[in-house]
Amino acid sequence: MTVGKISVACWVFFVIMSIAFLPLGAGVVLALHALPAATRFVVAFLVVGALWWGPFAYAMYLSLAVMRNGDRRLLKRGIHGTAEVLSAKRTRTVIQEGEFAWEAPRVWKYRLRVTIPGRAPYETDCSICVPDLSEGTVVDVAVAPHNHRRVTIDVGQDAKDGPRVPRPVPGHAPAVPAGTEARTPGWRPAGQTASDAQRIGLLTQLGQLHSQGILTDSEFAAQKAQLLGE
Questions:
Q1: What is the pLDDT of residues 42-70, one digit of tens each?
Q2: Most exposed among 66, 88, 172, 181, judged by the fewest C-beta atoms under 10 Å?
């Protein structure tokens, strides 16, 4: 089950509980008078806290911590692999957290073909506030151990103040937003032979990513060696 579906289920359950709370709550309160104080507290906590406000709190967590910034917990504890972007959809959803409404990041929904150890490639969706990645881009991902449909793209969310940009995968072209190929010197799709001019442009782009801290020293060296060895 994807994060998007889990979030929708939480909101639906919260709305149902909000509508049903008055008749349900009235009946529960009348029945609680015959119960000991400790039991009344436990029942009240379960009804109000767990069943009603619990789904709301979890839905907010999925929005602010998972969709907005990328699932940091999943990146640390999940199964690591790669995924190819099959399609990108710009949704109408924005995740606002202190900014003005027009500055809030927008959620993009990606269709991914995921590859992880011990399992055949499969397709799933990932909703995250990362600008539209072009089709065919390969990114690092982490997958939930017991729910392989739940995936997060590695955008450096495991580090404080991470770049929030997909990290390049060795052997593949750097991830660039769809529609920016013409503005990126030397950009080319993965697998296409590069001319000398294109190779120089790609080296320039890699150098910029390295100077910005998006590429580590080892990642930069690996990408550079691959380009020079073509």
A1: 777 777 777 777 888 878 777 777 778 78
A2: 181
Domain borders along the chain are 3-67, 71-167, 172-230
**Residue 184 CB burial class (10 angstroms; 0-12, 13-18, ≥19):** middle
First vs last C-alpha separation in the chain? 41
Which residues are CB-neighbours of 200 under 8 A, at least 6 positions away? 186
List pLDDT tens digits, range 89-107: 988 888 776 555 555 788 8
Which pTM was predicted? 0.59
Cα–Cα distance for residue pair 72/154, rounded to 1 Å: 9
C-alpha distance from residue 125 to each of 45, 89, 136, 159, 187 (Å): 35, 11, 15, 24, 26
Q: Report the C-alpha gap between 187 and 190 in whole angstroms.
A: 9
- List Cβ neighbours of 62 (8 Å cut-off, separation of 6 or more): 3, 6, 7, 10
Distance CA 61, CA 89 (A): 22
Q: Which residues contact 68 (CB under 8 A, 6 or more apart)?
A: 95, 97, 105, 128, 129
Q: Using alpha carbons, select from 224, 189, 183 the residue that is nearest to residue 207.
A: 224
Question: CB of 136 within 8 A of CB of 177?
Answer: no
